[in-house]
Specification:
This protein is α/β, with parallel strands linked by helices and 128 residues long. Helices cover 45% and strands 18% of the residues. The protein has six helices and five strands. Helix 3 links the parallel strand 3 (49-52) and strand 4 (78-82).
């Protein structure tokens, strides 16, 4: 049975491209265009992994969604894929103890990651 990955991003082009990439890696995908849509989806099923944009309806939608997913499914790995560092210069270090308290994600990636890197990170988080 294929692992199901929830991909959430309000950039339709990015969402489409990410869905294609992840499906070509052999995973089943479910997509959402907003935090609100993703919240409805996680009520219906438990994804095996989530890839979330950071800034959607609000600047911290990805953090809020990550928190809600981890509260409901603590064992589901979460990747936040964002362009915020390139756009604003802001950086996040989820390895720092202080950051771990409020960033409930397992990995932070800059958008534009190569397919082989993304596949390696997904497999590492899914332990496959």
């Amino acid at each position: 049975m294929k692992k199901r990955i929830l991909i959430v991003d309000d950039d339709m082009d990015y969402l489409y491209q990410m869905r294609l990439k992840v499906e070509q890696m052999g995973f089943e995908t479910v997509t959402a265009e907003s935090q609100a849509e993703a919240e409805k989806i996680i009520l219906e099923f438990k994804p095996d992994l989530c890839i979330l944009d950071l800034m959607m309806e609000s600047d911290d939608s990805g953090f809020v969604l990550s928190y809600k997913i981890k509260r409901k499914y603590p064992d589901v790995p979460i990747i936040i894929a964002t362009a915020v560092t390139a756009e604003t210069g802001m950086t996040f270090d989820i390895r720092a103890e202080e950051s771990k308290k409020w960033i409930n994600a397992d990995l932070f990636l800059d958008k534009g990651i190569r397919n082989d890197q993304l596949q390696r990170e997904i497999k590492k988080l899914l332990k496959i």
